[in-house]
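Subject: Protein record for review, amino acid sequence with backbone structure tokens
Why sent: The fold of this protein is of interest and is recorded here as tokens.
Notation: Tokens come from a learned vocabulary of local backbone shapes, not from coordinates.
Attached in line: The record itself begins immediately under this heading.
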Amino acid sequence: MLREGLKISLTKFWAIFRSLGERRITLILSFIIGLLSGVAGVALKNTLHFVRDFIGGLVPMDTTSLIYFGLPAIGILLTLLFVRYFINDDLSHGVTKVLYSISRQGSKLKPHNMFSSIVGSALTIGFGGSVGAEAPIVLTGSAIGSNVGSFFRMNYKTRTLLIGCGAAGAIASIFKAPIAGIVFTLEVLMLDLTTASIVPLLISAVTASSVSYFLMGRNVVFAYDVVRPFALHNIPWFVLLGIFCGLVSLYFIRTIWGIEKRFKRTRSPYKKWIAGTLVLGVLIYVFPPLFGEGYDVLQALLDGRSEYIFHNSPLYEFQNNYWLLIGSLFLIIALKAVATAVTNGAGGVGGIFAPSLFIGGISGFLVAKLINQFNFIDVSESNFALVGMAGTMAGVMHAPFMAIFLIAEITGGYALFVPLMITSTIAFLTIMYFEPHSIYTKRLAMRGELITHHKDKAVLTLLNVSKVIETDFIPVEPTETLGSLVKKVSQSRRNVFPVVTTEGKFMGIVMLDDIRPIMFDASRYDTTTLQEIMNLPPEIITINESMESVMNKFEFSKAWNLPVVDGDRYVGFVSKSKIFSVYRNLLIEFSEE
């Protein structure tokens, strides 16, 4: 009786809920997702603080840097065991995973992604892994949006928007920067800015930011009030900083890619752990600023305490040596990319968001230090550190607007807006010359799985070969005779016949036009086999091929139908007419507000 009553109540609720209309439902869900992603951001930060405080209570971390050698290895091992035995899934490349889910998985993320990255990144970073917590929280927020959308049976387009709401809320929560969260969604996740999308994104970002303020107060990742305003005569130096940040971003991306490839050659996760943590331990022992996210180092530089670079380092006694400081800053920039890559390669969970801010802050501070060596020039090292953060973020993520608004919101004003725009734009243009894709999108772009703001290409990316395969072609065997084929011609509405062995192996095709001159010659019906008259198709499509590649094959071959194989086994055909029909329907759906 109780069960029946509950079932009726749920049915009524569902009917009332659906009667609100999709737009109103989306607004309600964006608020819920903002609440949940805000709580997730706070949970991650508090878990990180708990792990650090717990370790700090057990280990006197200020007495020696030797402890830095072993702690990250413990944290990464715990992460490795958690992922391997509790999750059994890959938690790396959080933002790339979100982009892939949008382009290839119907904007569906697994339920465990709503919490697993929080645990994994807290263990990795809390014990000193040299990565950031932002990509894991973006994956967490996006997974919340995806699963809420799936629970309420929303369509692909709305589910994608809710993923954006979760990501915007996650960034807004962790940085208390709602505008940056929205811009991140538009620039990095490449959602379209429309009247239908902007309001839910705003609701989610503002809600998540408010939750973060309510639960954690006004404390931000690093605090700084701009004391020295922007001066016009410093524009050339900010241009120089932009070029430097662009080149540093290029080095950062390529170093991480190169080290990742090396780790992929090793199959054993424990061999990766040993190799990665050994390298990481040595790097952190010599340069303790590489320990963890590095926000404490950035705060010290903003406060003018450059000697903090040598805190707990074997080089501490040389802290007043100017050129050693300059050399150390260069090395820290170079080695941070290595430390980040080996942390993830060893099995840690974390992103490149914080590391890109870190190397940017160091880069800006370094450039300002060198400029100030000239007695007739005096620039603010703190301002340059902040602007440098925006520069490398714009370069690494290919997100100049997000970088500008994030730093502007963190500093609590727009006093540095002009230099932020100058440096971010120059850094972005510099890296675009060498790398057309960001660190998040490069892997997907190489496989043709990236959705962009270009609607035609976006729709092509959404199309899978499996969605357009036609199987109403009559297959024939290579040992069959011409007479057998003539009988099948009368049964088929197609003018092409795939030649397939009894085991399903694709051999070739027979076109109706090719046999027309001999199909009425009865003397050849029993003597001519199809193996003699079949031809190879101008192109063959594989089952997992990108639609962009498929379209290129149609363009090059001028064919109307092309066979699809899985390995060497025949699957079906893809026709231009089928592609255009599905493409048109998808484009209409994709373009609707």
User: Anything to note?
Assistant: Residues 499 and 507 are 5 Å apart (CA to CA).
